[in-house]
Amino acid sequence: MTALIAEPRGLETPFDRSRAHVRAVESKLLALDMMGKTHSELEAILASEGREWVRLLLEEVLDRRAQLEERREVTGADGVERTRVRASERRLSTILGEVTTQRLAYQAPGHEDLHPLDAALNLPKERYSHGVRRLVAKHAAKQSFDEVCETVEDFTGTRIGKRQVEELAVRAAEDFDAFYEARAANEASPEDFLVISTDGKGIVMRHEDLREVTKRAAETSKRKVATRLTPGEKPNRKRMAQVATVYGVAPFPRTIRDVMHTLRKRDEVDAKRPRPTDKRVFASVEKSQHEVIDEAFAEAQRRDPEHARRWVVLVDGDPRQLRAVKAAAKRVGAKITIVIDVIHVIEYLWSAARALFGQTSKRSEDWVSDRVAALLTGQSGGDVARTIRWWLSRADAKKVGPAQREEVECTCAYLSNRTRTRHMKYAEALADGLPIATGVIEGACRYLVKDRMDITGARWSLTGAEAVLRLRAIRASGDFDAYWEFHLAQEHTRNHAKRYEDAKVPHVLPPPRPRLRRVK
Question: Please, which residues bridge with residue 312 across strands?
């Protein structure tokens, strides 16, 4: 709310108050009672006094801007001219401390006030400065909101509430989609593969922010124990976040010996694997699986609009995921090569091995290695599934009970599924130099979701979780500084320019004087 004042602050010489503060601090440091202070005590004193000095400098610079503000004709986006002009002020909490900014308020009865000087300074709508918002954004991406409150107080000397931290994080992340839609694509070699990968990861949510199906399941399930959740009750507390990544990578032809180190000699050295380039990772708990996959394909389309590169999609074989991938590819008109993650396949093989031979053993390891080798040398998933069923027919019925047989059948069903087995041509993939494992997306799931969102006891709101996922994605993609510059420009348009006629803010400060160059 705008506060009205009768007159602007006095027109004293610029920096009088900050200079007076420095002289007072110098006198304080020279006093006899300071001679017994330890270095840590002196550090604390100077940190506090230094923060006050720069706070005064900022406030005096803002005062100088207010003194130089010139009156203009001001018309709002509503077409109404603000003819009444009064002096006003507002408070701003900055990383240097709280300051008061003075400016002219242009008013018209029944219409919102306009402050052209606020636009010149690009002041935010809320009390906290963009500097505080940036500090919150960087730390909310890696710390709990409670820890961010402590960090802000340590850096600025200003206390901030947990709710305010969450609100600032949400505002900091609101230009995420617009930033990536507007960003120009980097040049890449046409020989490099364009890789898309996606996976899901659950986040514990507040009950009101669960998806409708999960919410109904949670409401209808009966609690077995009053004081805690049992393992069977935990799934109804999570909402799935869909994670995606898009990157480029050079072809890397390999053989089975390069993948299975047990087939190699001890003195053989790994060939240098090409690293992913221009990697972007992102996740959303608010958007559906289809929307996130569509966004990944839109990013790929932006990078390769002519489809000159080979598009490779790495997935875990979930049927809904495969359908969404194929639908997205069809929408952009791209020909894609789908590869089922070999690590995911190996986990299914280990599940069958444990059912057949008991817990992890040398026999299980050798058995799994043989099945993996069969897949990597050209056998289809259906062929491997038939081999596994043969092993099951030979197994001792006493050792392999109904539950274990179900595990084996689950693995066989996964491997022999027609849709999946078409995408398990690992021998061809290795010869073509394609990636066959989803290490990049697994790392993204761990970094974007698990490392931050799985904090013990955390239950997320939908807006808070989405904001943190976006901020972590920006940092993981190495785009934070570029994003922040874009965000500030959007803030000026959103908070100021759109409120004026033709989106043009009147210039109320005198133009800078041109620097004269001395000519010899």
Answer: 195, 337
DSSP string covering 435-458: --S-HHHHHHIIIIIIHHHT-TT-
- Helix (H) / strand (E) element for 363: namely helix 362-376
β-sheet bridge partners, residue 198: 244
Q: What pLDDT digit, counting tens, does each position of 426-471 carry? A: 999 999 999 998 888 888 888 889 888 888 778 899 999 999 999 9
* Total-model pTM: 0.85
**Radius of gyration of the chain from Cα atoms?**
31
The angle subtended at Cα 340 by Cα 404 and Cα 286, nearest 5°, is 95
CB 159 within 8 A of CB 146: no
Rounded distance between C-alpha atoms, residue 131 and residue 484, angstroms: 11
- Going along the chain from its start, the domains and CATH numbers come out as 3-171+480-503 (no CATH), 191-340+456-470 (3.30.420), 342-436 (no CATH)
- Order of strands across the sheet with 84-94? 3-4, 84-94, 97-108, 111-114
Which amino acid is residue 90, in one-letter code?
A: R
Residues 6+ apart with CB under 8 A from 227: none
Helix or strand (DSSP H, E) at 245: strand 238-249
Residue 204 CA, chain-centre distance (Å), reads 17
The region, left, alpha or beta by phi > 0 then psi within -120 to 50, assigned to residue 27 is: alpha
The residues of the chain scoring below 70 in pLDDT are 1-12, 222-235, 261-271, 397-398, 515-517, 520
Q: Do residues 223 and 429 lie in contact, with contact meaning Cβ atoms separated by under 8 Å?
A: no
Q: Which secondary structure element, helix H or strand E, spans residue 280, and what is its range? A: strand 277-284
Average pLDDT, the chain: 89
